[in-house]
Amino acid sequence: MATLVNLPPAVSNTSNRDPYKYQWARYVARAQLDKKFTLINEKISGKQNLPAATTISQLMDRVQELLPGESKLTGEAPTDRKKLHVGIVGAGCAGLFTAMTLDFVNQHIKSEDLQITYDILEAADDSRLGGRLYTHHFSKDTELPHDYYDVGAMRFPENDYLGLTKENGGLVPYYLDDYKKVCPTYFNDKRYVGGPSEGALDPYGVNADYKDGDPKGIPKELLTKDPGKIVETAIEPFVTALKGDMDIGSVDGWKLLEAADYMSTRQFFRSTDLQDDLPTVERPLKRPYNFNTIEWLETFAYATGWYNQSLAETVLEALDFGVEEPTSVDNTKWLCVEGGTQKVARLMADKLVKKPELNRQVTKISTDQTGTMTLTIKHADEPSAPTETRDYFAVFNSTTLGALQRMDLKDAGLRYGTKQAIRSLGYGASCKVGMKFKKAWWMKEPHNINSGGVAKTDRPTRVCVYPSYNIHDDYEKPAVLLCSYTWAQDAQRIGTLISNPTNSKHETELKELLLNDLALLHSTPDTYKALRAELEELYDDHHAWDWYNDPNMSGAFAYFGPGQFSNMWPEIIQQNGWLFLIGEAASAHHAWIVGALESAIRGVYQMLDALLLQSPEHDPYRDAMKLLQDPYLKEDLPFGPLPLEIPKRQAGEDRKAPKTDVPAKGVSLTFTSAQVLLSFLEKTVEEAEAKVA
Predict the structure, then answer these.
(1) Topology, domain 135-178+428-549
(2) pTM, whole model, 2 decimals?
C-alpha cells in the first residue's frame, strides 16, 4: 500500500487519450521549437550563403563551422562527470520533489558511476516548509486534531490527473458539493438555502432594472439556468473540435485553441470572434453576450475579474479538471489530506538524504564562462551575518516567478524571452481566512451543514468553505471554518484588511466584516441579530493570509493571460545554460500540485539529457534517463513516467520512426534532446552576436 509520501506521483493515464492539457502543451512546445529552429537557421544560413539546415543536428554542425572559436555547443561539461553538485532554490513542492528524484537516481545508479549531491536553500523558517503547501494550526492541542485549516493547496480531484486514490493513506473525502441542499447562497441581498428552486426566473433579482427584451438586460432564457452550465455550453464547440481532432489525427482543433489563447474569456463572450470556425453546437444563447450577462456569469460562477484570463485556459480547465459530478455524499470525487496538506511537505523532507537548509535566502544567481552556477545567499535568521556564495554545476529554481524576479539575475545568462516571462507572466491573487469557533455552530440546528460543501455570495467573503475533515467531530467542541476564500479582484480587496505579522491594525475590521457576512449567509431578516450576537460569542480566533502579501511568493498561482501560455511557457521550460526553472508555473497543470511535481521531473531529465549530449559514451547518464522514462523498472519509483506534457518527438516526425538522444546521421533527435541542444545553440549565437555588436 502506498504511503502518504508517495502522494506525489506524476500524472497517470489509464484512458484511451492523453489529457487535453498535455496535448495542448505538446502542441505549443513543438511549435515554439520549430519557430526557434527557423530563426537560428535563417541567421546561420544567411551568413554562410548555404541552403537552410534541415535538422537541428545539421544546424549544430553549421554553427560549429561558423563559430569555431566558441565554447562547446552542448554547454560546458562538469569537471568530474561522475560527481555533480546542484543547488535547489526553494523547499516547496517542486524543490523537495527534485531532491527526492535525485535521491532515487543515486539509489539506483552505482555511486562510482554517477552521484548527484544537492543543497536545498529555503528562505523561510520551518513553519513554512513546503511553500504553498501551508497549513495553519490554531493550537497544538492533541484533543483537537482538526484545529487547523489549509492556507494553501487543500483539495485534489480523484481522477487520473493526480494519480490519487483513497488507498494512499492519510487521504479523506472532500465534499465540495451541497449534496443535502443545506448550503446558503446570498446575492443581491437575497438568500436561498440549497439554491433557488429549479426553473425560478431571476431568483436574485439581478434583472430588476430592465424590462423584457431590453438589450442591456440578461436574456430571460438564461436566468432560469445555472451560470456554470451556461459557461460549459458556451465553450462546448472547442470540446467538439478537439475531440474531432483525436478521431482523425488532425491538428485543426489545436490551431483553433491557439487562436483562442490570444483572447480573454471576456472578449470571447463579448464578440463573435471564431464563430464561423467553431463547430455548431446547440446552446441557450449565441454570442455575443452583453455586458451585464458576462458580469452575471463571472460573479456567480467564478471571481471578479476571472474572465480576464486566456480563453484557452478556461477551456482546458473545464476539459481536464472537471470531475464527474457526484450524486451523493458517498461518491465524492475529491480528496483532502488528514492533518493538512503541509503534512505532505514534511513527509517528503523526512525522506530526503539531505534536509533543506532553512532561513537561507538566495539573492543572486550568476554564471561565468566555465558554465559554473553561483548562488549568493543571505542568512535570514542572522541579519548581521555576511552573505555567502556557493558554486554548483546546475541550479533548479523552484520559487515563484515573482520571488525570482527580485533576485539579481543580470549575470544568470537568461534569454530575453525568459526575462520577459519572469517579469510579466500573470499570477492570481488569493486570500483565505480561517476562523475558529467554540462550537461547530454551522453543523447544528437550524443549519445542519454537516457534509462539507460551500456557500457563495457577492459580499466580500465571496466563498465560505465548510471543512470535510471535521464532519465527524463533536459539534459541541471547538471547530475551524474556512469562512472566506477569494480570488482575483475579490482577493485584492479583502487583502487590504489582512495584516502582516508586525501590524494588526485592520484585523478587527476584518473580523467584523466576516462575522457580519456569515450572519447574513446563515440567517433570515428575523434571525439575523440573534445569530450575529451568537457568532460574536462563539468566536475564538482567526487567521488570515494574502498570498500576494507573502514576500516569498508574490502571488498564489500562475494565471496565464491572453497569449502568455503560447509564448511564455516554452521560454520557462527551456533551460538557460545550467539553470532550470521549475514549479507549477513551469507546467501545463499550473496552479495544481501535480504541475509542480511534473516540472521537477522535467528539469532533472533535461539536465541528464544535456549531460548525455556532452558525453554520449557515459552510459550512467542514459541509465538515469531510463529510470525516469519507465515507471515499471523500479517498484519504489516515487512518481509515474515522464510527464505527458513533454513531447517524445519533434513536430512532423513519424511517431513510429526511431529517435535518438544524441546526434546520429539519419535519425531524428527526441524532442527533449532537440530542445536542449537548440537552447545551447541559441545561447552560442546570441553571445557571438553580442561580441560583434
Answers:
(1) Polyamine Oxidase; Chain A, domain 2 (3.90.660)
(2) 0.93
